[in-house]
Amino acid sequence: MLPIILFILKLLGILVLILLGLVLGVLLLILFVPVRYRIEGSYYERLKGKVRVTWLLHIISVTAAYEDEFSILIRLFGFRLFKPVEESREDAEEMLVHAMEVTDEDAEEFSGDILKDVEHSGKKRLTEEGKLPENTASGSERTNSEEKRKEPQKIEPQKSSRLNEEPGQGSGGKAQAAADRLSSIFAKLKYSFEGICDKLKTIKEKKEEIQAWISNENNRKTIRLLLRQLKKLIRHLLPKKGKGEVVFGFDDPYTTGQVLTAVSAVYPFCHKQLDIYPVFDRQVFTAEGHFKGRIRAGTLLLIAGRMLLDKNFRGLLRKWLR
């Protein structure tokens, strides 16, 4: 008896270890196998684009394309999961046509049954013709009484209240109304001035709070840590391979220069894959490129975990969430 129990426990232990191994393997696949993406697109007075995302040797793939209309394709182990709307409509129409096809024999039998039912119902109606109630007179009397009730009633015009006013009250009422208006305008101006003063006080207090927060050494360390982690995140998300070209310009050279200044803040992160050419003498915009990259869940978790390990950042996060 004891060897049998030990053998069963051994099998259960092996099964538990196998399940734990499978769960651990799936977690490792999710964390360390990257999600790869490929982006292709162009714009020459007409937008065209295609994005493809794959994972684990193309076991899962999602392709989205846009050219005059948007389309998406999802495959699992090479099999399409969802059909486009047009194909599903065509399949539904074929099924309806196939279901509505009736053979000649079935149609003849159906028409014969209908004729028999019509003859049987006609005989029944002929036997029951004299049994209909005659209540037309009462119906006419009801309609006459309803018409009488719906006659329009005369409405006497109301006399205006202005006729009842005394002749000596007109000038005094106008003076009182003008005084009331002036007092209301003065009250509004006073209220708006007090509101502006309160806003200036709150802005000054917030400015002092921000300066005190920035001057704190722990907060400075947290800001530097956050900037480093954001830089790592951007580098990880940006494509590793590819080449693109953007040509833009406006009628006003000043606007072109302003846009170029804004783009220069992001350009150091993508200068190897993207070429930007400003045009200052005409309005133009063209773009073309193809890029490849990958996103690994483990790297994202490491960046988030590094920030959460900082005690000061956790305290600030709690305050922001409140």
Automatic annotation (TrEMBL):
Residues 125-177 are annotated as: Disordered. It comes from the Bacteria. Keywords: Membrane, Transmembrane, Transmembrane helix. The chain crosses the membrane at residues 12-35. Residues 143-165 have a biased composition (Basic and acidic residues). Pfam families: DUF2953. This is DUF2953 family protein. The lineage of its organism: Bacteria, Bacillati, Bacillota, Clostridia, Lachnospirales.
